[in-house]
Amino acid sequence: MIFAKFYGINDRGEVIDAIITQKDNVVTLTIPKERVMPCQYLDIHSPYFTAKAGEEGYFFSSPIQRQGIITRFKSQGDFTLCSDENPTLLIGAKRDNFSIIAYPDGMRYDMSQALWTKDNEYNLCYRIRLGGDAPYEDISVNFYILPKGTEYSEMAVYYRNLLLSKGIIKPITEKSKERAAVAYAKDAPEIRIRMGWKPAPSPVADQTLENEPPMHVACTFRDVMKFIDELKAAGIDKAQLCLVGWNKSGHDGRWPDAFPVEPLLGGEEGLRELISYAKANGYAIVCHTNSTDAYPISPKTEGNLVLNEQGKEHEGGVWSGGRARRLCPKKALEFGREILPKVADLGFSGLHYIDVLAVISPMKCANPAHPVTRRETVSYYKELMGMCHELFGGFASEGAFDFAEEFVDYGFYISNNRPPHPLADEYIPLWELIYHGFILYNVSTATVNVNIRDINDQLMFAEYGGRLSYYVYQKFITATASNTNWLGKDDLTLDGEEMAKTVAVIKEGYEKHKKYFSLQEVTMDKHEIKGDVRIVTFGDGTKLIVNYGDNEYIDGDITIGAKDYLYL
């Protein structure tokens, strides 16, 4: 079923015809790299993902806040969504006579999703970010044509089965047999504890040893031991603790340097004692490291940064360590080989957390001393993730983009908040339909500390199948016009009597959700939208009905209260 034209068009408006082949239900688009002159970007167009307003059907994609969305072909004004922060590059369409999904291969790590409507025509395409270069490999996209009427859930499951057939992903049940860290984590809440930090945003953008601001101590290693006693006394028999800011100068202190262990928290001796104590009480304990950010205060920064095509450093936000730069992925691997064994030697074991690594689009480095393509970046990052499996028992990160699907065991949050947008007619658990049962995850920034969050966020946590995740001292940013604490206004702390309240919150969430921990091991096979109600069917036959409405939902003998949910 090949019709109309497939082509690429660059930022200068130049059109490059594609080569199209078909085998069974798979149509493959290829553009040989020799056909593409250097340009800023190249959009890949296909007739499958072009529609007129008024047509039946929809597109699905994830170009807004890492969320899966459905876009219906309604008459409206001109709007655009373009993002390189896509948790999965999978896109799909339900059309009049067929359904279809697409996934790129060649140049995939340089691709983002672009969605727009102009003059009542809808387009969804892959945008290749070339930055003035030519592609380093042939461009290719596979389109899988599926039967008429196939819905987004079935399309996601079809793609999941492709990954399984290729051995790219592995069920949590199998991972648990191979690695004790995964077997433990699937039945345990995650509790992150931010222990210390310098002011954020920092008053000193480029810190040195002479002008480094003092570090605020939120809790010491001894304090965390007292916290463990309280968790144990409350009957929380399993938890994975993740220490954030244990390193020199606290959270975002001097990356890519981690050592020495921060003396104000208790030093290396105190940390080793804490790790042994956590394990003796039956808890897994890991820590937070960083392989992407770099600060001038570290001698490892000099000569080892990402440079763009103009030879300039990437400058990120101003955090506790000052203004962040990007560490070249090749150098990140070199430093990881040096630092991660030392971290493991402290005694940590579990799903080790490397900040950001699996939740950003792969980087390109144009530094002439160590140039790196985005595909090479992925290979370096995968080696870091594999090291975590070997040294600690597993790998976790801030999220779980699908370039990391082979290695990531837990994503702290898959998406951000869900803003209204004219091109987002419905939000759907797209990534979750693919990976539930294969990767542990917390759903969103809005579902951290879930049982003290808004009721709609609690409902989304259930609907999207999240792993219970808490953050103690999540608030560390001094709010400004451009900087806020993105994990919510309510905090959990270990300050004096607040420790008891924190334990009570975790206990409440643990008791409410532990009966459903077993669902982490099964697939999510179907998601349905019925007005204010969402119906989720899992691979073991469990059905979840979530009622976002302000009135009871009644279906035969089943009644679900307003703003409530029920497992059947």
Describe this structure in words.
- The chain is globular.
- The chain is α+β, with helices and mostly antiparallel strands and 568 residues long.
- An eight-stranded antiparallel sheet has the order 3-4-14-11-10-7-8-26, covered by helices on one side.
- The model has no long low-confidence stretch (mean pLDDT 96).
Number of domains: 3
The CATH topology name of the largest domain reads TIM Barrel
Mind summarizing the main beta sheet? 8 strands, antiparallel
Shape: globular
Tally of helical runs: 10
Strand order of the largest sheet: 3-4-14-11-10-7-8-26
Low-confidence stretches: none
Q: Structural class from helices and strands?
A: alpha+beta
Q: Identify the CATH architecture of the largest domain.
A: Alpha-Beta Barrel
CATH class call of the largest domain: Alpha Beta
Fourth-level CATH superfamily of the largest domain: Glycosidases
End-to-end gap: 41 Å
Provide the fold topology.
Layout: E1 7-10, E2 15-17, E3 19-23, E4 26-31, E5 39-45, E6 50-52, E7 58-64, E8 67-72, E9 79-83, E10 91-94, E11 99-104, E12 111-118, E13 121-133, E14 139-146, H1 152-165, H2 172-178, H3 180-185, E15 190-194, E16 196-197, E17 216-217, H4 221-233, E18 240-244, H5 267-280, E19 284-290, E20 293-294, E21 315-319, E22 322-326, H6 329-345, E23 350-355, H7 374-392, E24 393-397, E25 410-411, E26 426-428, H8 430-435, E27 440-441, H9 455-463, E28 469-472, H10 498-513, E29 524-530, E30 533-538, E31 543-547, E32 553-555, E33 558-560, E34 564-567
Parallel strand pairs: 15-18, 15-28, 18-19, 19-23, 23-24, 24-25, 25-27
Antiparallel strand pairs: 1-2, 1-5, 3-4, 4-14, 5-13, 6-13, 7-8, 7-10, 8-26, 9-12, 10-11, 11-14, 12-13, 16-17, 20-22, 21-22, 29-30, 30-31, 31-34, 32-33
